[in-house]
Write a sequence for this structure.
């Protein structure tokens, strides 16, 4: 990991990439309404990243991914492919996952949106998964171990009778999209590597209303719950600082 510690100069560039990724989610919010297709949302994000931000959508072409953002509706856990045939309807929950590259550095963030009138049980899953992200961010500081973060995410999810997805995790991020370390969203206290000032990684817990098991669709990307029940995910890119951490992808509506 030591080769992946960010200097102040690196961090100033990651701050810019992070802010741009956050701004895409701020921009798209008013468009996430019943009747819009996920292809339209993808296109709006793509044009904002390329034309307004003069940045690069990291997902487009990444290992062959066909679009600029991931759009994951209801039982889709992650990596949903935008499509003109996927039209949002009232009651849906959707994650939009945005990664931008600016000046060679990555910023990666996702959030859930409630479409129209959403059931209370879906709202609760969305809220608890956001709490899992926030409570783990609150614990980040030098000397804390990575397994502690996973442990507290898992504990909060399971206390609420939800399960944590195992097969997909957070990741180091910087000049590369996905770097060491893997950031698991479950685990044991006092396990894993110690956090050090200058590390940059994502935390992106995926919580399922039912069982944790996943299945990959035949498109090779879309990951769904195997029991067909709802899933919810929130993601931030963070940097470990001397005192705690800095959330590089914080939105205006968030206070850290
Ligand atoms: N943004 C996702 C993550 O949080 C990765 C998406 S990869 C893609 O790591 F190819 F599906 F876009
Ligand atoms: Co992401
Ligand atoms: Co990520």
């Amino acid at each position: 990991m030591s080769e992946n510690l960010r200097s102040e100069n690196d961090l100033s560039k990651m701050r810019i990439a992070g802010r741009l990724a956050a701004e895409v989610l701020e921009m798209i919010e008013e468009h996430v309404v019943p009747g819009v297709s996920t292809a339209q949302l993808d296109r709006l994000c793509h044009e904002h990243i390329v034309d307004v931000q003069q940045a690069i959508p990291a997902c487009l072409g990444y290992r062959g991914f066909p679009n600029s953002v991931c759009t994951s509706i209801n039982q889709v856990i992650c990596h949903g492919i935008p499509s003109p045939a996927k039209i949002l309807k009232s009651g849906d929950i959707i994650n939009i996952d945005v990664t931008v590259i600016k000046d060679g550095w990555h910023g990666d963030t996702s959030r859930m949106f409630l479409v129209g009138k959403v059931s209370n049980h879906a709202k609760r899953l969305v809220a608890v998964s956001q709490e899992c992200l926030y409570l783990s961010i609150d614990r980040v500081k030098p000397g804390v171990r990575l397994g502690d973060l996973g442990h507290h995410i898992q504990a909060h999810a399971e206390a609420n009778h939800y399960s944590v997805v195992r097969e997909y995790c957070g990741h180091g991020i910087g000049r590369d999209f996905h770097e060491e370390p893997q950031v698991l969203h479950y685990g044991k206290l006092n396990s894993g590597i110690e956090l050090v000032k200058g590390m940059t990684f994502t935390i992106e817990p995926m919580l399922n209303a039912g069982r944790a098991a996943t299945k990959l669709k035949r498109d090779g990307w879309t990951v769904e719950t195997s029991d067909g029940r709802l899933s919810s995910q929130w993601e931030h890119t963070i940097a470990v600082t001397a005192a705690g951490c800095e959330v590089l992808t914080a939105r205006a509506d968030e206070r850290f």
Q: What stands out?
A: Residues 59, 62-63, 65, 70, 79, 97, 99, 108, 202, 204, 235 surround MF3 (ligand 1) (CB under 6 Å). Residues 8-28 form the longest helix (21 residues). The CA atoms of residues 3 and 39 lie 39 Å apart. The helical segments are 8-28, 38-52, 120-139, 146-159.
